[in-house]
Specification:
12% helix
Length: 136
């Protein structure tokens, strides 16, 4: 059941990412950095806090309610510093969210920050989210 829920969410997210109608000021190819990021990548925790990051949009997967939100990417910034032993790569600014990309111990990590006054998509977290390995 949980595996099928995860499959449905990921299929919906990939469909939304593929069909997003966006305009960018400055484009970036995220390449291997695209994918699902979560506090815990296990199947049992698939319905907890996680994001699907793409070149043109960011989707927040919230519980089993199947709420999805797509945000248009505006531009790419560089210059932030890593706060621990991780290596800062760059920041992608989506409408309503900034996503900082880091590399630590050969793994990709992100920090997602809400830039709006109201965060309609759930609790704010300062936790770093690790990139989940895709099962292909």
């Amino acid at each position: 059941m949980k595996k099928s829920l995860l499959s449905v969410l990921l299929l919906t997210a990939s469909f939304t990412l593929a069909n997003a109608n966006t305009e960018t000021k400055k484009s970036a190819n995220l390449g291997d950095l695209q994918g699902r990021y979560a506090l815990d990548c296990s199947v049992q925790k698939a319905n907890n806090l996680s994001y699907v990051i793409g070149d043109k949009s960011i989707l927040r997967l919230i519980s089993a309610k199947k709420k999805l939100g797509a945000f248009e990417k505006k531009f790419v910034r560089q210059g932030r510093k890593a706060s621990d032993s991780s290596q800062y790569q760059f920041t992608v600014a989506y409408t309503g969210f900034d996503v900082d990309f880091y590399k630590k111990d050969e793994q990709n990590w992100i920090n997602v920050r809400s830039t709006g006054i109201v965060n309609h998509f759930g609790p704010k977290t300062k936790e770093a989210l690790v990139q989940c390995k895709s099962e292909t």
